[in-house]
Design goal:
binds S-adenosylmethionine, 5-stranded mixed β-sheet, single chain, 5-stranded parallel β-sheet
Length: about 240
């Protein structure tokens, strides 16, 4: 069927490319992607050879209109470098305009780093807010964090290794020392998920780690899981008896 197919690709483990994703990619008249080298490599490793076209949200209106025209008679697939397109990745304008033009639009689900991290962090998942990347500049970053501080939901951020230490310190400062998880290199050989308070994570990652990262943070007011030491129990008892 002609139209626009949003296809999720792996976030590190090639085994996560679904059978449906493979089938749609193999049937594509054109695969619109962020970087033809990255997607070319994925298709090559999967034994698929289809025409690639670079496309992102900065593409001019004419390039987008041409792609939408093709969707009338052809199978147009949109992928990003990794994971689910549109999630901190290009595609929103293409989907918006394809819908406005009455094209068939569908999505083939698969890997997404945010959801993968949420499922392994051990923090509440009943309500979460995906906040994407924090701004690089300190002032703008503090502003965004302040906006999110009162949101009664688990917060999910994307981050890069080099920026992790600064981000964790800024988050501890702006949100308070909440429980959190740093999920790194998901689905890859060196996958890790380190949990603790934001300040303990900032100490743990004082040296910037390598790789791709998702930060998951508990909602405000969620109890901080702390091992009660004998001294702290004694101190609490003394304080209670003194009252
Ligand atoms: N669309 C992608 C998705 O569905 O997850 C996200 C694209 S965004 C440009 C890239 C960011 O996603 C990385 O900087 C990192 O924060 C996160 N990410 C992607 N792959 C990851 C992985 N394997 N482990 C941890 N984080 C990952």
């Amino acid at each position: 069927l002609p139209g626009l197919y949003i296809v999720a690709t792996p976030i590190g483990n090639l085994g996560d490319l679904s059978d449906r994703a493979r089938a749609i990619l193999s049937a594509a008249d054109v695969v619109a992607c962020e970087d033809t080298r990255v997607t070319g490599k994925l298709l090559h490793l999967s034994g698929i050879k289809r025409p690639l076209l670079r496309h992102d949200d900065h593409a001019d209106d004419r390039a987008r209109a041409a792609l939408i025209e093709r969707m009338g008679s052809q199978v147009v697939v949109l992928v990003s470098d990794a994971g689910t397109p549109l999630i901190s990745d290009p595609g929103y304008r293409l989907v918006r305009d394809a819908r406005a033009a009455g094209r068939m639009v569908t999505s083939i689900p698969g890997a997404c780093a945010a959801v993968t991290a949420l499922t392994m962090a051990g923090l509440p998942t009943d309500r979460f807010l995906f906040a994407g990347f924090l701004p690089a500049k300190a002032g703008a970053r503090a502003g965004v964090i302040a906006e999110l501080a009162a949101v009664p939901a688990t917060l999910v951020f994307y981050e890069s290794g080099p920026r992790l230490p600064t981000a964790l310190l800024a988050l501890a400062e702006g949100l308070g020392d909440r429980e959190a998880a740093v999920c790194r290199e998901l689905t890859k050989l060196h996958e890790e998920c380190v949990t603790g308070t934001l300040s303990s994570l900032a100490s743990h990652y004082a040296t910037p780690p390598k790789g791709e990262i998702v930060i998951v943070i508990a909602p405000p007011g969620a109890p901080v899981i702390e091992e009660a030491s004998e001294e702290s129990i004694d101190a609490a008892l003394i304080a209670a008896l003194a009252d």
